[in-house]
Amino acid sequence: MGLFSFIKNAGEKLFGKDEKEVAAAAAANVEDLNLKASTAIQAYIEKQNLGLTGLSVGFDGASGKVTLSGSAPLQEAAEKAVLAAGNIIGVSDVENNLTFPASVAAQYHDEVKGDTLSAIAKKYYGDANQYMKIFEANKPMLSDPNKFTRVRNYASPNNLSGTSLPV
């Protein structure tokens, strides 16, 4: 599916340390830290209950790149796994090697300061009241449509004609 870029210092904080502590510790035992981070990222993705099978997560702390492989029941589940991995502090890129049945790809919107789901819906759908489509497409990364405080990447749902709407 490809390589997706994210904002490295925004999102869920899974590793419990600031970048300086991580960098100092990484010099001591890079492989062990990458394995621990991979395990934490995999647990976080699995907690999203996306129905993935054979999920394998690799992490390279030096580059901030996560690599996902395994199978997803739907393209939407694979996209949500990419979003979950990419919205973790310290992750800048996600290589998606998940397999899934063929369907239409979603598009992504990078949140900027001042964005709301309604404003994004107005921009792409022409109707601010369509914000729940964006919210539903981004569950479980979003738990409440009114909690929109971190800079994240958002996926769009497919419209009824089967084509992807930009979001």
Question: How is the secondary structure organized here?
Answer:
Elements: E1 2-5, H1 19-28, H2 30-47, E2 53-60, E3 65-71, H3 75-86, E4 93-99, E5 108-110, H4 117-125, H5 131-137, E6 153-155
Parallel strand pairs: 3-4
Antiparallel strand pairs: 1-4, 2-3, 5-6
Helix pairs in contact: 1-2, 4-5
Fill in the keyword field for this structure.
167 residues, disordered C terminus, alpha+beta, single chain, 4-stranded mixed sheet
Describe this structure in words.
This protein is α+β, with helices and mostly antiparallel strands. Helix content is 34%, strand content 19%. The protein contains 5 helices and 6 strands. It has helices at 19-28, 30-47, 75-86, 117-125, 131-137; strands at 2-5, 53-60, 65-71, 93-99, 108-110, 153-155. The strands form 2 sheets. Strands 1-4-3-2 form a 4-stranded mixed beta sheet. It has a two-stranded antiparallel ribbon with strand order 5-6. Helix 3 links the parallel strand 3 (65-71) and strand 4 (93-99). Helix 4 packs across helix 5. The longest helix has 18 residues, at 30-47. The two termini are 18 Å apart. Mean pLDDT is 78; it is low at 159-167.
